[in-house]
Amino acid sequence: MSDIVQSLALGFSVAASLSNLWYCFLGALIGTLIGVLPGIGPIATMAMLLPLTYYLQPTEALIMLAGIYYGAQYGGSTTAVLMRLPGESSSVVTCLDGYAMARKGRAGTALATAALASFFAGTVVTLLIAIASPALTELAQKFGPAEYFSLMALGLVAAVVFAQGSPLRAVGAIFLGLLLGLIGADVNTGFDRFTFDRPELRDGIGVVVVSMGLFGIAEIMLNLSNGPEGQGERTKLSRLWLTKEDFRAAWPATLRGTGLGALLGILPGGGAMLGSFASYAVEKRISSTPERFGEGAIEGVAGPEAANNAGAQSSFIPMLALGIPGNSVMAMMAGAMLIHGIAPSPNLASTQPQLFWGLIVSMWFGNLMLLVINLPLIGVWVKLLAAPYRMLFPAILLFCCIGIYTVNNSAFEVGLVALFGLLGVVLAKLDCPLAPLVLAFILGPMMEENLRRAMLLSRGDPAIFLSRPISLGLLIACALVVALLLMPNFRRAREAATEA
Amino acid sequence: MDPLNDSKGRAAVAPSEPAPASGANDILLGLLFAAIGAFALYVGRNYVFGTTQRMGPGFLPRIVAGALFLLGITLMIRGMFARGWAPPAIVWRPIVLICLAVIVFSSTIDRLGLFVASLLTVGIGACAAQEIRWKELPFVALGLAVFCTILFGYALKISMPVWPQ
After folding, report:
1. Which one, of A423, A435, A430, A384, lies nearest residue A159 by Cα?
2. Interface touch A495/B78, C-beta < 8 Å
3. Is-contact A73 A312, C-beta < 8 A?
4. Which comes out higher in pLDDT, residue A320 or A149?
5. Segments making up each domain of chain A, as ranges
6. Averaged pLDDT, A446-473
7. What is the DSSP string of A173-222?
8. Angle separating helix axes A58-83 and A107-141, nearest 10 degrees
9. Do B99 and A421 touch (CB under 8 A)?
10. What pTM did the predictor assign?
């Protein structure tokens, strides 16, 4: 226990330094500013702003990026409430009741609820990370290649189950993602695979390129082809504060949302989205007045918002403790760490305690900043939203191009983004979920490496995955998750929840 | 659009998704997956497969591409059994123009620099809008190009060509 207090104290001393506080504030502010623009999610925001952090110290850079992430996440909720335009998948459910509240003239209350619920969830999960990380790091010492492989397999299976629509399409998305991840020189032999004699492809395709294309550029195309009616109506702002009844309805939902979000966020492939959908489904199921949902129920805002923030934060756990980025945002964080010469690994807490604990505590500061920035500035964001999309999207397009170019100074990668944008539009139009594809793309190369290592150790005997207890447990979890999918009751609940 | 509405005892057909459309979507998506899988199998036909103990560079590519191909075929078969044929409506102009704008940025940035590349990208990209306002467009393009040149080229001093070389 005293270890945790000591570590947190160290973290506080790092995070509360004037320069780190400043970068945390700056990150949250700029993140919100960009994230509030329609159609820009956290991934696009982070990729665009990554160059801003190149010249900072590693700790400052990561703290600022974390701030950008939270800011963008919150910015997405703001557009969801005010314009029915979710900036990213995790605020899709916020649209339902948040926008309904806004139309009833309660936009201010909805936004304040979102900010407060997010702050509460952020505080709880920061503590959770501090408590769980050392234990997980210890567990990670027992992880060999077989365990890593099984854990990542569990992540992919979970991504299929929780994806929207038909599971078969999600499985296809996984295979396509794995295949794209194989592009580049083979790690063991240096043999070029699918590089088509382009030297730029030898290192593989960057996560930023894939996610910017599939999410950033494709989103612009989809928004433009949906026409003006797809861009949502704007609503007026109202008083901010919550009434007593609002509080009474919102806090249990916040509590449940925090728990669900934190739990589901730890899963590789989980992240912020899963929790928000699950929380909405739960709130609606246990409510005594389910007919209010969709008509502006405050629980339908508080629960999912708490859950998506909790999930966003607990998705740091697999990366910090095991070195596995569980979603594309974390992959981008891992990329930023590599740029600063830090390899994400289980040893991070012992080799770089200042950075590790500083980052964890600054997550809490980041949430505090959001509260401080957003409640007074909601009026400003509303004004920003008044800019018409035809003026905004060229700027978004240009920032995406510049953002990609600055990562490696590679014009070739910018061209690839166009290709992935095209792929993203086609897949979206054919109802193929994109999140499993990106996850498989991220995990694929790591899975291959660990699979080959495990099979080398076992002399080609696949029984190694079943004979090691942790690996066996993870594979049993995989089987259970698949079995869940075959149960009619679960299927129906899944269809209902993911159709939102 | 109340997707979480009563799911008790209803058939598995989701209310918001028109059932006939999924037949076309399954067939087209299956075709895409099968084509990519077959292409990858063809390109990687000479990659060394290896053994389970010492996997060659072709081990996973062949398994994954093969699986993608088979899954594509499965999706196509499923789509053929679904009723109706209603492929998704695709508006081509924004898709083509946005792709073109990005490609133009990628092919001009190294030689012509940030300012000119920005001007061209915004100029082409802005034409993807539903209604183009010709009087507004030059100002948007010029304004963004100047803003980005100052921000990225001078204020942040990011190393990239700013002017034509």
Report:
1. A435
2. no
3. yes
4. A149
5. 2-498
6. 90
7. HHHHHHHHHH-EE-TTT--EES-TT-GGGTT---HHHHHIIIIIIHHHHH
8. 140
9. yes
10. 0.82
Q: Which two tokens stand for residue A395?
A: 């700027």
Rounded Cα gap, residues A5 and A11, in angstroms: 10
Is the separation of the CB atoms in B61 and A179 below 8 Å?
Answer: yes
| Candidate from A188, A228, A491 with C-beta closest to B12 | A491
Query: Max Cα separation, chain B?
Result: 68
CB contact under 8 A, A496 and B61: no
**Burial class of residue A348 (count of CB atoms within 10 Å of its CB; 0-12, 13-18, 19+):** buried
Amino acid at B140: V
List % helix, strand, coil for chain B (3-state, nearest 5).
60, 0, 35
C-alpha to C-alpha distances, A1 to A4, A131, A132, A350, nearest whole angstrom: 5, 8, 11, 17
Q: DSSP class of residue A97?
A: I
The tokens of B159 are what?
Answer: 């190393």
φ and ψ at B14, to 5 degrees?
-70, 135
Nearest-by-Cβ selection for A492 from B7, B40, B88: B7
Residues sharing a CB contact under 8 Å with residue A40, sequence separation 6 or more, in sequence order: A34, A48, A72, A75, A87, A216, A219, A396
* pLDDT-derived band at B15, boundaries 50, 70, 90: very low
Closest Cβ opposite residue B102 in set A51, A421, A460: A421
Asked if A144 and A454 touch (Cβ cutoff 8 Å), the reply is: yes
> What ipTM, to 2 d.p.?
0.85
User: Is A495–B14 a contact, with Cβ atoms under 8 angstroms apart?
Assistant: yes
Amino acid at site A465: F
Long-range contacts, stretch A227-233, CB < 8 angstroms, 24+ apart: A227/B130, A228/B130, A231/A38, A231/A83, A231/A85, A231/A389, A232/A38, A232/A83, A232/A84, A232/A85, A232/A99, A233/A83, A233/A84
Q: At what angle do helices A42-49 and A389-408 cross, to 10 degrees?
A: 50
Whether A389 and A38 have beta carbons less than 8 Å apart is answered as yes
Confidence of residue A39 (pLDDT cuts 50, 70, 90): low
Contact (CB, 8 A) for A27 and A65: yes
Cβ contact, residue pair A182, B61, below 8 Å: yes
H-type helices in A319-352, by residue range?
328-339, 348-351
pLDDT greater than 90 at residue B77: yes
- What amino acid is encoded at A400 in this protein? C
Residues 64-93 of B with CB under 8 A from A: 64-65, 67-68, 71-72, 74-75, 78, 88, 90-91
Q: Mention every residue, 6+ apart, whose C-beta is less than 8 A from residue A251.
A: A302
Dihedral pair phi/psi, residue A185, rounded to 5°: -70, 135
Look up residue B39 and give its two tokens: 């292409």
Question: Hey, is the C-beta of B102 within 8 angstroms of any chain A C-beta?
Answer: yes
Contact A390 B53 (CB under 8 A): no
Q: Which member of B37, B107, B141 has the closest CB to residue A411?
A: B107
Query: A236 Cβ partners below 8 Å, 6+ apart?
Result: A105, A107
Joined together, the tokens standing for residue A11 give 């973290």
Mark which residues 263-292 of A lie under 8 Å from B by CB. Answer: 280-281, 284
